[in-house]
Specification:
3 copies of one chain form a homotrimer.
Chain A: H1 25-39, E1 56-61, H2 66-78, E2 82-87, H3 99-108, E3 113-118, H4 123-130, E4 136-142, H5 148-161, E5 169-173, H6 180-191, E6 196-200, E7 216-218, H7 221-224, E8 230-233, H8 238-242, H9 249-256, H10 260-263, E9 271-273, H11 286-289, H12 296-319
Parallel strand pairs in A: 1-2, 1-3, 3-4, 5-6, 5-8, 6-7, 8-9
Chain lengths: 327, 327, 327
């Protein structure tokens, strides 16, 4: 284990997948290359590989998310794992058991991987620091902090359309402040060498330290979308629409919503992405969401291949023991 | 695809199973013959076939039904498929996603079959019209419209006891008006050449256009049950018992409930059927439900074989591509 | 089938696992020996055996219990069975179907094993008396009556640390009155030849006929824990803490909670057990729960092996038909 970064061992191999922090280009390219080879599996008549046969993958969802849970469940099943879904809010927590006791119990059931979704930032890392060494932990979204598998499926989707990360303009539009998707995606793009990353948002939806993220800030899509290769629209959470940060969702659409006119500012072959589910008429016009430049549904398909890749890589690194520590 | 009937391709092969409309005797006999061969699987020590190994079957239940969901889930698992159950009412719908967006997302996860249960008539067909061509859609009950797999398990059960459809008297008793089971069963019996189909119900529980269904109408079990080979009792929905259409459930039992006396009006070897769950003392007397002429539990067993048959046939027709269209 | 004891056939073989009543040392040793060999499976790279491939195991939970359900589900999956979970309270019961009708329907789906959890004593036995002979029934806890798989995992855990049952002092501490765990464990220890079984509890938490259980009664841990080899702390149900039987949970901890001081009364190599989930600071001090003598998490691991053993044995005895009855 690496003292600074729990998710990589001292040989630099990925043991968990918690956030993009501390990862390098080699880690990310291994995921992208593995996902590329797994994408073909989903198109075969028999969509299953025996990679995780006999392994037990546990969905630890402290926060409901049918969509994310489903893609992880399918990814695990297509690798032949047994899958257990635990909705923690409604189970042992009600008996007053602490999180650590719950963890200890599930790991005593000899599970191999925890997929963690939690409302609090740092929850997945906390769990990774406390589980037994044979267990791999994947972060399926923690608070506003990180959603690294979503970031990886986003860069995988970009890579399939625009293979050269070094000559790429990417615009991320919307609620940057609260978006774990945006935070992770910006990190991944930085690691992969994208130099022109733009965020386009009103001041109220930008973090204070936005200039430290390695991005250019725009408050106006007219400037921010000029000539970009990729537009990533973020989902506007309902809480935000109702809160004080935004006047109304109609006004947000008027100022930031992706219409055909705004899309025309980008390069002619630009692709349009969205982590889903989309709010049509809020972040994005239906003609754009369903239009020829949209790759929103490809993202869903790619998400399964990317999650299969991350599962295979992290569990594979657990299975091949590292060279003994105290040589 | 057939312009008039989405569930059969232009070669007449079954791609979906949405309703009995437009199907012919050959389609139904293929299902019955396949189910007959699959019935043996359930009696083997290893109750599994590899037919759908590597396929993903999604239960799309917009309406709760443990019983129906369970039989589809078992049928899929016994064909070695991976099964995903999505209770739509409690998932993405709450994020304001439209039905079509939900569909697009699930199909992007490269699923192969949707089992649809929905409170609205026509929902399964709507979905079949909008999914990608490689996906098979099975209707597991839509509103008052259709419940075709139930009808097929009913005719399969009849066929195993009374092989000659041409010389058969079948009486269907109870709530014809609201019953998707009755509607589908009458269609299936008509297709299979049953000429004496009787419905026995009070006027308030009969559809206005009942005479167009190809049935004889009786308001009195004493007349309707005379000499029949098969009695199908329908489930009386609680909503009906409490509504204005019926005086009380006691009175319904007095007028229509299947007692040993009424059963004696039928042929001595008549069989008694019910789609379940039974309301004992409302539609049927316990002595009849548990008596020697009852085949109610056989229907449950047959239901799994019939659903396995329909899954195998429809997915098989998707896998073998039709002769190219534009020859 | 045995007239007196439904769970063993007339050749003395285990068909169901409902309670410890009527079982002998040979039955229990077969379970312990089989579990010992299955414990190794969980440590292999591929944690699966084909023993129950093609079998359908149904979790019939009339009472919620994520923890117990999960261990049975994992045990069944690691034996390659298909698993169906039915939360009965929320399914057909709401349509007014009786328990027997529900059973009849599930058995008609050709399932092989029912795992029953029910709030009422005797529910699992009632079900075993009414299912078809090919189905094995396992009691996963019925009211205050019995929790026999928990008792078996407890004696299995004891056996791995203290192989000689004949020279063993076991103290069971806490709510003996309402505990199905205590009741079953005392029976199992008696069958296995443990002669010094102690219960340590306030008078209000002891059954009236406690002296008929084959145990020594102590009201004071200072006396009861002297020199014991095994301490089993019971979970104090919240209902009890709030009821009239106990002054407060703080006072319970002061009088009965297992602290390091009290643990020092036992033999130096004594083991500490708890069925989980623990109430830290009520029954047990965290330093003891997490200390070197605690085997609480081993119990969880052992629980899966023991349940796999009981599933294999009972279904195996169903598969090998007994010598014909009427010779």
């Amino acid at each position: 284990m690496n003292a600074d970064n729990i998710q990589i061992d001292y040989q630099g191999r990925l043991l968990h997948f918690l956030s993009l922090e501390g990862l390098n280009r080699r880690h990310l390219m291994e995921i992208l290359d593995t996902a590329e080879s797994l994408l073909g599996v989903a198109e075969r008549r028999v969509k299953k590989l025996p990679t995780l046969h006999g392994k037990t993958v546990v969905n630890l969802f402290f926060e409901a998310s049918t969509r994310t849970r489903t893609t992880f469940e399918l990814a695990a099943k297509r690798l032949s794992a047994d899958v257990l879904t635990l909705n923690i809010a409604t189970s042992s927590a009600i008996k007053g058991e602490s999180l650590l006791d719950t963890l200890r119990n599930i790991e005593a059931m000899q599970c191999d991987m925890f997929i963690v979704r939690h409302g609090q930032s740092g929850a997945a890392e906390f769990i990774a620091r406390h589980v037994k060494p044979h267990i791999a932990v994947l972060n399926a979204g923690d608070g506003c902090h990180s959603h690294p598998t979503q970031a990886m499926l986003d860069v995988f989707t970009i890579h399939r359309h625009k293979p050269d990360f070094n000559n790429l303009q990417v615009a991320i539009v919307g609620d940057i402040l609260y978006s774990r998707v945006a935070r992770s995606l910006i990190q991944a793009l930085n690691i992969l060498g994208v130099t022109d990353i733009r965020v386009v948002a009103p001041r109220t939806l930008l973090p204070v330290a936005v200039n430290k993220l390695g991005v250019k800030v725009f408050h106006n899509p007219h400037d921010g979308l000029q000539n970009v290769d990729v537009i990533v629209m973020l989902r506007l959470q309902k809480e935000r629409m109702e809160g004080a940060l935004l006047p109304s969702k109609q006004e947000f659409f008027q100022c930031y919503g992706l219409t055909e006119e705004r899309l025309a500012l980008a390069k002619p072959d630009a692709i349009v992405m969205h982590p889903g589910p989309t709010n049509r008429g809020v972040e994005i016009d239906s003609r754009v969401a369903d239009g020829p430049q949209s790759v929103i549904l490809e993202q869903v398909t790619n998400g399964i291949a990317v999650r299969m890749a991350i599962m295979s890589i992290t569990l594979g690194n657990h299975a091949r023991p590292a060279v003994v520590d105290n040589l």
